[in-house]
Amino acid sequence: MTASALRAILASGRVTHAPGVYDPVTAALAVAAGHRAVHLSGAAVSAIMLGRPDLGYVHGTQIADRASTLVPALDGIPLIADADTGYGNPLHAVWTALAYARAGIAGLHLEDQVSPKRCGHLARKELIAIGEAAAKITALADQAPQIVVIARTDAYSVSGLDETIVRCRAYAEAGADAVFPEGVDRLDELKRLHEALPGVPVVINRSEAGGNRPAVSDADLAAAGVRLVLHPVAALLASMRAASLAYRSIADTGTAEPVDRMPWAAFTALIGQDEALDLDARYVPKGIDT
């Protein structure tokens, strides 16, 4: 169901923004805000679960485990998850995709960096051969068709736009549902990619890890073939900033009163506390004395 919803988003003529979520509460907040898709970042999971950077500490099993806790809060909204490099060869990539599908993940993005990869926004990246990367995508399309495959390439920072287009074309031909040209941000370059791959949905990244990005309207992005814009860590950074201010205020003044916070009643409503405390109203037939 959620995979078909994600495929419909990719087939549409509009841009959908997918913010990062990392637990059931942020998932519920994203749904309440009206988002049509959300994203689970490996960097967010590594930071939240382990307090470590995105440098290979987290495996797909941990991503799937984290996803399984937040999918119920999404109310059918499709979740896209970071699948790194697939965590090995095509067989490993298929195992990862099947684990993701069991966890309720609708789609994944798969990178063409050498494994273990460097963080996507660090220098000195190394890429695997096009054929090796395409083989993983073909294996996923063949053995895990229930999950949407977004093929990410980091070729732009290594070899430039021409190589990025070559790889995106190969990955689309291998069976990817969409391509994710990391680092391609300028509208003219996105248009050139779209002209070279007509009909292939494009996914782009708006992570703060990539620094300042060119300001491009959704209308222009849509015309350049972009269908999904990921915002992997915006909410995480916002929440970390808010928590930092609250801790500092308590340390300095003994109270968090100066810091803007969600009201307690809004928080309990978000997590369903009132429903949980009134089980009779939900499950016991009317008129039965309990």
From TrEMBL:
InterPro entries: ICL/PEPM, Isocitrate_lyase_ph_CS, Pyrv/PenolPyrv_kinase-like_dom, Pyrv_kinase-like_dom_sf. The keyword Lyase applies. One of its GO terms (molecular function) is oxo-acid-lyase activity. It holds the Pfam family PEP_mutase. The keyword Lyase applies. Keywords: Lyase. This is Methylisocitrate lyase.
